[in-house]
């Protein structure tokens, strides 16, 4: 009898427990994890505001990178056509130079010999000219033979050719033949800068003998530097000659440099990229050859649906907006975003949001509310 009483009590207890579970499950409602519910005070504290999406004209921005380059005509290699020993120079890489400034002084005995040959030949050509004119007059009166006259003429013309050759050699060596005399023969010559710019390379030291084929210095004129950028094959049809772009460095992204595209390469590299060259609208000394830069190219403008940047939140690498759903409730909707410009982001979505109000301020607070709810 005792066992029957215990069994009846256990059976009643289990029945009551099961009934309570059923009642509890019946009263529980499914929770939408994408809906944030706030009271009026919370909405006010979060500063939540709603507005309709707008239609604005924005342009697609193509982002490129590259580095500053110097065209070949702005790079000058300085050499000594006749060779010689480097006597003096003050140049170091980075030294600024002006056109006509002395870069170095070279010396060699061949310079002395060249000046000697020119002055000796100059004196001889005067004698041969007089002899030629005398033989010419004598030949007219047949006082001298044609052979003597022809020999005098040949000697005179040959000496003129030699003098012209020596004249050009002196100019090539940096010596002015017109100012050369027996009193100012020098064993050294000056090397002058042909451009304004700065020294990029110094390949010699004082006392070193330099052959005519060796490069002493390399100079760069930076006033016509170019920005060389790489463009992927898929974006080439978006680039046109004459387009403007804004370039900037990683260290100072806020400082923009205006450029214009002047050349587009016609071949592709192994990485399927082409090179475009753009010219800086204004040269600045801080722009140096070899410096890496980024560039933004503004493509064709178009009218699209946009929301302020503050209306879009990112969660788990996806973008969302919040839409009011009833009183004090906001539903989180996933959207696709496009171009961003001047604080507005393009909205790309299958759902029509033209007339749908969205949270434009306080969206991040709503996201935090949802995350905290999911963790509880």
Which key features would you list for this structure?
single chain; alpha+beta; Elongation Factor Tu (Ef-tu), domain 3; OB fold (Dihydrolipoamide Acetyltransferase, E2P); six-stranded antiparallel β-barrel; 21 strands; disordered N terminus; BSH_CzcB-like; transport
Provide a compact summary of the structure.
The protein is of the alpha+beta class. It has helices spanning 2-27, 40-46, 109-140, 146-173, 363-375; strands at 35-37, 49-51, 54-69, 75-79, 84-89, 96-97, 102-107, 188-192, 197-202, 209-210, 215-220, 226-232, 244-248, 257-264, 273-280, 292-308, 313-315, 318-324, 329-341, 344-348, 358-361.
Describe this structure in words.
By secondary structure, the protein is of the alpha+beta class. It folds into three domains: 35-57 and 302-375, conserved putative lor/sdh protein from methanococcus maripaludis s2 fold (Beta Barrel); 62-72 and 221-300, Elongation Factor Tu (Ef-tu), domain 3 (Beta Barrel); 76-220, RNA polymerase II/Efflux pump adaptor protein, barrel-sandwich hybrid domain (OB fold (Dihydrolipoamide Acetyltransferase, E2P)), CATH 2.40.50. Helix content is 28%, strand content 36%. The chain contains five helices and 21 strands. A six-stranded antiparallel barrel has the order 3-12-15-14-13-16. Strands 4-11-9-6 form a four-stranded antiparallel sheet, with no helix packed on it. It has a four-stranded antiparallel sheet with strand order 8-7-5-10. Helix 3 packs antiparallel against helix 4. The longest helix has 32 residues, at 109-140. The chain is rod-shaped. It starts with a helix and ends with a helix. The model is unreliable at 1-31 (pLDDT under 50).
């Amino acid at each position: 009898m005792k066992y029957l009483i215990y069994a009846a009590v256990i059976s009643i207890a289990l029945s009551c427990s099961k009934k309570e579970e059923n009642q509890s499950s019946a009263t529980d409602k499914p929770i939408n994890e994408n809906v944030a519910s706030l009271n009026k005070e919370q909405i006010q504290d979060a500063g939540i505001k709603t507005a309709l999406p707008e239609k604005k004209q924005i342009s697609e921005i193509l982002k490129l990178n590259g580095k500053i380059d110097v065209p070949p005509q702005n790079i000058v290699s300085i050499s000594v056509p006749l060779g010689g020993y480097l006597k003096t120079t003050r140049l170091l890489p980075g030294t600024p130079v002006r056109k006509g400034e002395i870069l170095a002084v070279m010396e060699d005995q061949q310079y002395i010999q060249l000046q000697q040959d020119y002055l000796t030949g100059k004196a001889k050509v005067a004698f041969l000219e007089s002899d030629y004119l005398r033989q010419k007059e004598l030949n007219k009166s047949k006082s001298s033979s044609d052979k003597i006259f022809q020999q005098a003429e040949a000697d005179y013309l040959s000496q003129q050719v030699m003098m012209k050759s020596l004249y050009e050699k002196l100019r090539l060596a940096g010596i002015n033949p017109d100012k050369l005399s027996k009193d100012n023969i020098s064993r050294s010559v000056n090397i002058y800068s042909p451009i304004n710019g700065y020294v990029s390379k110094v390949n010699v030291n004082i006392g070193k003998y330099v052959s005519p084929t060796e490069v002493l210095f390399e100079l760069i004129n930076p006033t016509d530097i170019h920005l060389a950028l790489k463009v992927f094959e898929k974006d080439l049809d978006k680039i046109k000659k004459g387009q403007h772009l804004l370039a900037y460095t990683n260290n100072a992204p806020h400082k923009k440099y205006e450029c214009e595209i002047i050349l587009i390469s016609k071949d592709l590299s192994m990485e399927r990229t082409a090179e475009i060259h753009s010219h800086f609208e204004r040269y600045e000394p801080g722009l140096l050859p070899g410096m890496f830069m980024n560039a933004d190219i503004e493509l064709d403008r178009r009218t699209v649906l946009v929301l302020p940047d503050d209306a879009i939140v990112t969660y788990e690498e996806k973008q969302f907006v919040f839409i009011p759903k009833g009183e004090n409730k906001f539903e989180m909707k996933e959207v696709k975003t496009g171009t961003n410009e001047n604080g507005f982001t393009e909205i790309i979505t299958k759902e029509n949001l033209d007339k749908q109000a969205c949270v434009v301020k306080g969206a991040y607070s709503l996201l935090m509310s949802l995350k905290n709810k999911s963790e509880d």
